[in-house]
Amino acid sequence: MLYPAPAVLVSCGDNPDNFNLITIAWAGNICTSPAMTYISIRPSRYSYAIIKKTREFVINLTTNKLAFATDFCGVTSGRKINKFERLNLTPAKASKVSAPLIEQSPVNIECRVSEIFHLGSHDMFIAKVLSIHADERYIDKKGALHLEWSDPICFSHGKYYTLGKQVGYFGFSIKKKGKKKGH
Ligand SMILES: Cc1cc2nc3c(=O)[nH]c(=O)nc-3n(C[C@H](O)[C@H](O)[C@H](O)COP(=O)(O)O)c2cc1C
Fold this sequence. Notes:
13% of the residues lie in helices and 35% in strands. The chain has helices spanning 46-54, 67-75, 83-87; strands at residues 5-6, 8-12, 20-24, 27-31, 36-41, 56-60, 91-92, 101-102, 107-118, 123-134, 153-156, 159-162. The strands form three sheets. Strands 3-2-6-9-10-5-4 form a seven-stranded antiparallel sheet. A hairpin with a 2-residue loop joins strand 11 (153-156) and strand 12. It is globular and about 60 Å long. 30% of the residues are buried. It binds flavin mononucleotide.
């Protein structure tokens, strides 16, 4: 019941013959320093064995434009098809891991697995973030990332959504009236 959840495309594999994509909603930030994240995967997934063996994966953030691919990678298995080819997605070389980045994704997060917890239906892969790539189109002149420009999507109770309107910003609840943000 913890929704909305992310809907990310996780890429895995260590050579073009076994490159694969899996859609993951059970994913999240778990530590700032060192930067760490997790994904939870059912052992029955084709990607599970790949990630267990290579201990590497890339989290690729998704957008409105990638919504079809996000769903498709969550309802088809890499055992039967090459999802990169079928979806015309471009596997790009990562800097620290052998798993590919999705070039069309606005942000790619390279990860190395540090621990695997067998929880029940899913195994939780806890991973260190080794490198992050952000598409320059979403970075302003001051170097700040505007992920909202990419039209990101999330997943809630079986449906995909884009973001709604902004209703606040970090710390706005204690901002003194009359003073501008940043003063
Ligand atoms: C929106 C969405 C979220 C999903 N989240 C997860 C998840 O967190 N963990 C998981 O094991 N499977 C999840 N799945 C299912 C897998 O993506 C799906 O079984 C996929 O076909 C596995 O691909 P593979 O066999 O090529 O690895 C999700 C599917 C969708 C559509």
